[in-house]
Design a protein that fits this description.
Elements (H helix, E strand, L loop, with lengths): L5 H17 L2 H9 L6 H10 L17 H13 L6 H15 L2 H12 L5 E4 L15 E4 L3 E12 L6 E7 L10 E7 L5 E7 L5 E13 L3 E2 L6 H36 L1 E2 L2 E2 L4 H30 L3 H29 L10 H14 L4 H12 L2
Parallel strand pairs: 1-4
Antiparallel strand pairs: 2-3, 3-7, 4-5, 5-8, 6-7, 9-10
Helix pairs in contact: 1-4, 4-7, 5-6, 5-7, 7-8, 7-9, 7-10, 8-9, 9-10, 9-11
Length: 379
């Protein structure tokens, strides 16, 4: 079991308090139905509480938090079924700027991000790419002291609310080459950038983004030209562990809701919780939840202390495989044990299950990470 510091326990308590006081299921449904899909007021509160600053280095004005700190925030948000750009804007896009950007770029972007005054989104997936981070057809061609970007990006989370997009594009090489990938910070209002937003099955927001000869200055390139793939892989592994922590929070909420329902619901004159067969099923759910929690928080510490990329990838993939299996199992049990109510839109259970299914698909599903774990374990 991972031992938490006093500061980390306070962090966990503050997120849980936010969910209790500001983000019950009724509020969540109202917020998700709005155009942006999340509350700007809540985002401002996140900035005041330091959650937007937590992952960033003290030298950049952040709190110098670890992957474990991020996981604690994501677990609490997952318990509340929070919908918003924390993963996409802070962990992924913000992480790329923080790790790969030069000092002038970091000074220009990160303070506004941490104050909640501007949002970022990470545009990296393409219609053909599946989970291969190097499968990029978007091109960046030199144009004087800058570049012109052309291509299409899919499932760009919360792009419609972002002031800028972090876009992956090829400055050299063929599709799927590990070299030749570059990153650019692109103003969403740039001429030639077209964005079409939609709601995903789990209530979040995403966009299809097309770039038609979009001009980007060289000062907005993140890192060296052609060498961005290792940076993208590292930040996405941090994103994987953050997603796993969110799933743990969601699974914990499902376990508690189902247990409460079984203690209240009667059948044949007895509480459902008194039936031994159902008790055994709930024990299985609890064991899957606790194994997922332990592995996720071990992975959060492991990726920070990893000696090389193979060790980092093993931690991230091991956690994602466990989360995928446990999320499917716990979600199905929660829906089934609630009976017909578990299928209704008015009950939170089905919404948690939808989010767990979406988490399994984001940043690599169970099959992808099983294969990756096997591959890196051979080295």
């Amino acid at each position: 079991m991972i031992e938490l510091s006093d500061e980390q326990r306070l962090l966990r308590e503050s997120v849980d308090r936010f969910v209790r006081e500001h983000y019950d299921f009724a509020n969540r449904r109202r917020i998700v139905a709005a155009d942006a899909g999340f509350s700007p007021e809540h985002w401002g509160l996140f900035a005041e509480l330091g959650w937007l600053s937590a992952p960033f280095a003290e030298a950049d004005g952040g709190l110098g938090g670890s992957a474990l700190d991020t996981a604690l925030i994501m677990e609490g948000l997952g318990r509340g079924l929070f919908a918003g750009p924390y993963l996409s804007g802070v962990v992924l896009a913000g992480g790329l700027v923080a790790r790969g950007g030069d000092e002038p770029l970091r000074r220009r972007v990160l303070p506004g991000l941490m104050r909640g005054e501007q949002l970022l989104a990470f545009a990296f997936t393409e219609p053909q790419s599946r989970y291969n981070l190097a499968d990029i057809e978007t091109r960046a061609v030199r144009d004087g002291d800058g570049y012109r970007l052309s291509g299409r990006k899919s499932l760009v989370l919360y792009a419609a609310s972002a002031s800028s997009l972090v876009v992956s594009a090829r400055t050299a090489g063929a599709t799927r080459d590990p070299v030749g990938v570059s990153l650019f910070l692109v103003d969403r209002a740039s001429p030639g950038l077209e964005e079409s937003s939609y709601q995903t099955v789990d209530g979040h927001r995403a966009s299809e983004v097309e770039l038609h000869d979009v001009r980007v200055e060289s000062c907005n390139r993140i890192g060296e030209a052609g060498d961005a793939l290792p940076l993208i892989e590292a930040v996405c592994d941090h994103g994987v562990v953050a997603l796993c922590a969110e799933a743990v929070g969601g699974m914990d909420a499902l376990y508690r809701a189902t247990l409460d329902y079984l203690k209240q619901r009667e059948q044949f004159g007895s509480k459902l919780a008194s039936f031994q067969a159902l008790q055994h099923r709930m024990v299985d759910v609890y064991m899957a939840l606790e194994l997922s929690r332990s592995l996720t928080f071990a992975a959060a510490r492991g990726i920070d202390q990893a000696r090389d990329e193979n060790e980092r990838q093993r931690w991230a993939s091991a956690a994602k495989v466990q989360i995928g299996k446990a999320g499917r199992h716990i979600g199905r049990e929660a829906v089934q044990l609630h009976g017909g109510m578990g299928m209704t839109d008015d009950l939170a259970v089905g919404h948690y299950f939808q989010r767990l299914c979406a988490i399994n698909a984001l940043l690599g599903d169970t099959t992808h990470h099983t294969q990756r774990f096997a591959g890196v374990s051979d080295h």
